[in-house]
Amino acid sequence: MSPLLELRGLGVHYRTDRGEVAAVRDVDLTLEAGQTLGLAGESGCGKSTVAMSVLRLLPKSARVEGEILLDGEDVTTMSWGRLRAVRWAQASVVFQGAMHALNPVRRVGDQIAEPIRLHGGKAKVSDLLDQVELPAAKARSYPHELSGGQKQRIMIAMALACDPRLVIADEPTTALDVIVQAQVLGVLSRLVAEQGIGLVMISHDLSVLASTCDRLAVMRHGGIVEEGPAREVIASPTHPHTRALAAAFPVVGDPAFRQVEPDEVRESSPLLRAEALSVDYRGRGGVVHAVKGVDLEIGSGEIVALVGESGSGKTTTARTLLGLRAPTSGRVLFEGEELPRSAKGLREYRRQVQLVLQDPTSALNPRHSVYESVAEGLRIHKVPGDEAALVADALAKAELRPPESFFPVLPHELSGGQRQRVVIAGALALGPRLLVADEPVASLDASVRGEILALLLGLRRELGLAALIITHDLGLAWSIADRVAVMHEGVLVEQGAVDQVLLDPRHEYTRRLLAAVPSTTP
Amino acid sequence: MTAPPLVRPSPRRGGGSGLLRHVAGKVGGALVSLAAVVVLGFFLFRLIPGDPTVTMTRGRQVDEAQIAELRALHGYDRPIVEQFGKYVGGLLHGDMGTSLFYRRTVAELIGERVGPTLLLVGTSTLIAVTLGLWLGIRGAWRRDSPFDRASTGVALVGWAMPAFWLGMLLSMVTGNLFPSGGMRFSSTPPDFWSQALDVAHHMVLPCLTLIAVVYAQYQLVMRSSLLEEMNADYLTTARAKGLRDDQVRRRHAVPNALLPTVTLVFLHIGLVVTGAITVETVFSWPGLGLLTYEALAGPDLPLLQGTFVVLAGSVIVMNVLADLLYQVLDPRVRAS
C-alpha cells in the first residue's frame, strides 16, 4: 500500500524579475497515516512552500518539479476538477488562524460548513466544534469575537470538516500563549491518535515539534538538512543548523541556556520603582482593571523579565512605567523621584528610559535611512555634540560595524536581526539608563534571537544598562534575566530571582505556565 | 494539573439598547452639524458683496427713499442678530423666506427643483457606481492586464477633467444629436411616454458628463480595496477548501472589498447634489444646482441660504445613512 503522502524530488522555483529563484530543492518526504511529521526551519527556508505545494496553492509564478503523491496519486498532474475534489476532502490545511486565515465578516459556523456543502455532505458543525472542545453556540460568532486560541480551534474544526486523511498544520500555535498553545497541541495530538489521520506540522519552534511529532525534518535554504525520528533529531542533532535552532529556544532549568553569570547579579541601587500601581481602562462595557496594585523594582544594571500571557496587563504596566499612561492610583519613582507630569519633564525622563518594540519592521519608518532613524531621537531631545559621531557611536554599540556603512541603508535592505539592532541603536543614542523591551525577539528568526539577547547582556556588562523585558516566553526569561516577575490578570502573582521563581515556583499560576511550556525532552 | 476552562463565558454585549444609543448618537451628531450649517449659511452669505435690495430693483428706476423702504420691508435695516433670530424662527416653522428675485417662497422653489436634480443625479450615480465597481473588480482580478491599465487610464482622464469643460466639449462633439439645454421641448405632446422620452433625450449629455467625471473614484477605490483583500490569507483558505476561482471572488473577496466602497458611495451621493451645480448650469437643467447658481448670481440671500441648507443637509443625511448601513454590513464595526 502506498503511503499517505510521498514527496519525491520536490522542487519549487519562483519566477521573478531577476530570473528564477529556487525556494525548495530536492525534498523527499514520506508520511504514513496516523503519523505526525514535523517540518522545522526559519522563515524563508521553504517549509511553507512545501506545505502549500501539496494542494497546489502556490502563486502562479511558482514552477513545481518532482512528484507529490497523495495516496499514490500525483497532485502535480491532476486536472483542475480532480484537484478541487481532492482539496479539503482528502487533504486540508490548518492555517495560522490567529492571523487572518478566517473571513472577518462571516460567521465561523458558515465558514466551517462551506467546504462540507461544496463537497456534498451533511453539515455537522456542532459535532466538529465539539471535537475541538468548543461549545456549539460559538458557530454564530464572528472571528473578531473569538480569542486567538478559539480561532485556532475553529481552523482545526474547519480542517476536519470533510474527514480528510491528511492535515497540514502551518505554524498552528505561533502567536498563541503557552497555556493555549499546550491546549491546541493537545487537541491536534488527540485527533491524530483517535482518527488515524496523517499530520504534517510546520513550525519554527523545535520544542513544539518535539512534543508532538514522530518524525522530524529540518529545512534550510530550501533543502532538508536533517531528517529522522523526532527523539533522535532532538537528542543528538548532527547538523549545526539543527543545533542552532534547538539553542534558540532555551529550556527552562537547563544551566546550558543560562547566559547570565552568577557573579554578574550584584546588589544594586533601585533605578525604577512602581508602588501599588493600578491602571483602569474605561470601556463601553464598564471599567476594566488592567493593572491591579503592582509593586515592581528594577535596579540599575539589572535585567528584569515581566512574564505573562496576552491580556495579563504586562504591556499596560510597561506603558505606565514609561510615562505613556498616567496610573489610576499608585506611583512610579525614577531614582527615588516621582515621574514628572509636565511634557518637558516627561521628555527628559524618556531620554533615560527608552523603549524597544517587538517588531522592528513596523517600528522603523520604511522611508528613513538608518542614519535618520537613529538621529531622530537626538534631534528631538536636542542632544549636543556632533550628530554623525553620536549616531556612529550608537550603531557601534549595537554591533553594527562599521557604522558608517549603515548610514544610508533603508530598513528593507536589512535582515530582521539588523533592523532590531537599528531600533536598539536608536534607543542607545540617547544614553539611557534603562531599556524597556516589549517582546524584543518574538518576531525574529531563531538564529538571530541569541545574538540580540547577547547584545542586551553585553550592553549591561559594558554600559551598566538596566532592562525590563516583557515577554510571554519563560525560556527567554531563564536565558537572560536576573529577576522575573509573573503577571496574571493584572496582578503580579510572583516575583524573585530567576532560579528561585522558575525552578521552585510558589504560585499556582507560575506552575501552570511552566507545565505548559513544550519541552524538547520527551 | 487541572485544565483551565477552555472557554470563558463572555459577557453579553449590550444588544438592542446599545444599537439604539448608537443610532441616537449619530442622529444627534447630525443635528448639531445641521445647526452649524444654518448658522454658517446665514452669516457667510452676509459677507457676499452686493446689496440684496439692489438686486430686487435691478433694471428699474428707484430713488433712495424707495430702497430704504424696501430695506425696512425685508428687515435688512434691523441688527444682524435680530435678522438671524427671525430667520431661525421661520426655519423652525418650515419657512425659509421668500426669494427676492422670483418673488416666491424658497420652499416652493426648492420643492419644484428637487425632482429634476434627483432624476439626473440619481441616474448618473447609479450608472457611475455600477460601471466603476464593475471596472474596479475586473481590473483588480486581472491586475496589470491591458484591460486594467487601459480602464484605469481612461478613468483618470475623466476624473481630471473639469465638468463644465467636458460638458461643453460633449455638446459640441455630438452636434445636434442631443439637446444641449433644458429638460423638455415645449412642442412635445403631453402624454407620459412622449414626455419621458423627451426628458431622457435631454438627460443624455448632462448624465454622461456627470458619470465621466465621477466614476473613476468608485473604480479606483474598488480596485485598491479588492487588491488588498486578494492578498488576504482567508482567500487561500477558501481556495484550499476547493472553491473555484470565481466562487472565491464572488463569495469572499468581492463582498469584503465592497465594504469600504459603500461608505464612499453614500458620502458621495450627498456631494454629487452639490457637484451638479456646474453640470446643471452648463446644460440649463432646471434643478437645485442651477437654482443655486442663480441665487449666487443675484445674490438672492434667502434663496441662497435655502439651497445651502438643503445641499449641506443632504451630505449630512447621507453620512448618517452610510454609518448606519455600515453597522448592518460589517460585524466588526458593530462590536467596537
UniProtKB/TrEMBL annotation, chain A:
<keyword id="KW-0547">Nucleotide-binding</keyword>
<feature type="domain" description="ABC transporter">
    <location>
        <begin position="272"/>
        <end position="514"/>
    </location>
</feature>
<comment type="similarity">
    <text>Belongs to the ABC transporter superfamily.</text>
</comment>
<dbReference type="Pfam" id="PF08352">
    <property type="entry name" value="oligo_HPY"/>
</dbReference>
<dbReference type="InterPro" id="IPR003439">
    <property type="entry name" value="ABC_transporter-like_ATP-bd"/>
</dbReference>
<keyword id="KW-0067">ATP-binding</keyword>
<feature type="domain" description="ABC transporter">
    <location>
        <begin position="7"/>
        <end position="246"/>
    </location>
</feature>
<dbReference type="GO" id="GO:0005524">
    <property type="term" value="F:ATP binding"/>
</dbReference>
<dbReference type="Pfam" id="PF00005">
    <property type="entry name" value="ABC_tran"/>
</dbReference>
<dbReference type="InterPro" id="IPR003593">
    <property type="entry name" value="AAA+_ATPase"/>
</dbReference>
<dbReference type="GO" id="GO:0016887">
    <property type="term" value="F:ATP hydrolysis activity"/>
</dbReference>
<dbReference type="InterPro" id="IPR027417">
    <property type="entry name" value="P-loop_NTPase"/>
</dbReference>
<keyword id="KW-1003">Cell membrane</keyword>
<dbReference type="InterPro" id="IPR017871">
    <property type="entry name" value="ABC_transporter-like_CS"/>
</dbReference>
<keyword id="KW-0813">Transport</keyword>
<protein>
    <submittedName>
        <fullName>Peptide/nickel transport system ATP-binding protein/peptide/nickel transport system ATP-binding protein</fullName>
    </submittedName>
</protein>
<keyword id="KW-0472">Membrane</keyword>
<dbReference type="GO" id="GO:0015833">
    <property type="term" value="P:peptide transport"/>
</dbReference>
<dbReference type="InterPro" id="IPR013563">
    <property type="entry name" value="Oligopep_ABC_C"/>
</dbReference>
<dbReference type="GO" id="GO:0005886">
    <property type="term" value="C:plasma membrane"/>
</dbReference>
<dbReference type="InterPro" id="IPR050388">
    <property type="entry name" value="ABC_Ni/Peptide_Import"/>
</dbReference>
From TrEMBL, chain B:
<dbReference type="Pfam" id="PF19300">
    <property type="entry name" value="BPD_transp_1_N"/>
</dbReference>
<feature type="transmembrane region" description="Helical">
    <location>
        <begin position="153"/>
        <end position="179"/>
    </location>
</feature>
<feature type="transmembrane region" description="Helical">
    <location>
        <begin position="27"/>
        <end position="48"/>
    </location>
</feature>
<keyword id="KW-0813">Transport</keyword>
<dbReference type="Pfam" id="PF00528">
    <property type="entry name" value="BPD_transp_1"/>
</dbReference>
<comment type="similarity">
    <text>Belongs to the binding-protein-dependent transport system permease family.</text>
</comment>
<feature type="transmembrane region" description="Helical">
    <location>
        <begin position="257"/>
        <end position="283"/>
    </location>
</feature>
<protein>
    <submittedName>
        <fullName>Peptide/nickel transport system permease protein</fullName>
    </submittedName>
</protein>
<dbReference type="InterPro" id="IPR000515">
    <property type="entry name" value="MetI-like"/>
</dbReference>
<feature type="transmembrane region" description="Helical">
    <location>
        <begin position="118"/>
        <end position="141"/>
    </location>
</feature>
<keyword id="KW-0812">Transmembrane</keyword>
<feature type="transmembrane region" description="Helical">
    <location>
        <begin position="199"/>
        <end position="218"/>
    </location>
</feature>
<feature type="transmembrane region" description="Helical">
    <location>
        <begin position="303"/>
        <end position="326"/>
    </location>
</feature>
<dbReference type="InterPro" id="IPR035906">
    <property type="entry name" value="MetI-like_sf"/>
</dbReference>
<dbReference type="GO" id="GO:0055085">
    <property type="term" value="P:transmembrane transport"/>
</dbReference>
<keyword id="KW-1003">Cell membrane</keyword>
<keyword id="KW-1133">Transmembrane helix</keyword>
<dbReference type="GO" id="GO:0005886">
    <property type="term" value="C:plasma membrane"/>
</dbReference>
<feature type="domain" description="ABC transmembrane type-1">
    <location>
        <begin position="114"/>
        <end position="326"/>
    </location>
</feature>
<dbReference type="InterPro" id="IPR045621">
    <property type="entry name" value="BPD_transp_1_N"/>
</dbReference>
<keyword id="KW-0472">Membrane</keyword>
